[in-house]
Amino acid sequence: MPRMGRVLLPNYPHHIVQRGHNRQVVFVERDDYERYLLDLRELKDAFGVKVYAYCLMTNHVHLLLAPGDSLAGLSQLMKALAARMTRYRNRLEGRSGTLWESRFKSSVVQSDTYLLACSRYIELNPVRARLVARAADYPWSSYAQRLGSEPSWLDGDPCFDALGDTDDERRSRYCAYLGQSVDDGELSLIREALQRGQLTGNSRFVAEVESLIGLRIERRGPGRPKIE
Asked: How many other C-beta atoms are found inside a 10 Å radius of the C-beta of residue 179?
């Protein structure tokens, strides 16, 4: 039975992880993180991609991105981000060669059910890694932007916007949401969907995507989704 490649869909959010080549360190100094975020802020508009959440770790990045009608923008954005960061680090270190793994991991996310859950998963990554005690203490994730008083360059997350009628109400409810204990099943679903290139969603969502792409997606054990 043939294996199915990575599923990418226009106008759907995607949970993306890109790692340093051989898990090498990508971000060392404050300037490294700031450079990547400046590029992300600039290039998202250039390629028509929405940014709902992000977290930059020392050797990888988590992003929650949604391309528009042009699906090519998502891959172009990731390629441009990787190329800019590679040139920047190679210049600093007087070296040549690749900085990132050649292929990023991705999972299409069910908006109404898992968009907020994926944002929480991404922004709590430094807490799970025991780098900080609270998400608010980590400066390189979207949490500070989402809950800060300054205008944010994040795109409007419809699930976050639905948390309340005012900015203060939405921030308060999202903060409480991050403070809740996360169900192990939710963690496993998000983590395994990303690792296996599957969908982050329920059976109804799987059926919806099957109808869109005209292929049968079957959840199995380790490995990518398969076509029947």
From this structure: 9
Digit-coded pLDDT (tens) for 102-124: 889 999 999 888 999 999 999 99
In contact, 59 and 23? CB cutoff 8 Å: yes
Pairing of strands 14-19, 60-67: antiparallel
**Model pLDDT for residues 93-104, shown as the tens digit of each residue:** 888 888 999 889
Query: How far is residue 37's CA from residue 90's CA, in Å, rounded to a whole number?
Result: 18
Domain 14-227 annotated CATH 3.30.70.1290? yes
Strand partners, 28: none
180, 187, 186, 179: which is closest to 135 by C-alpha? 179
Token pair in block for residue 71 = 């699906």
Residue 222 has pLDDT above 60, yes or no: no
DSSP 3-51: BP-----TTS-EEEEEEBGGG-----SHHHHHHHHHHHHHHHHHTTEEE
Tokens of 210: 């099957």
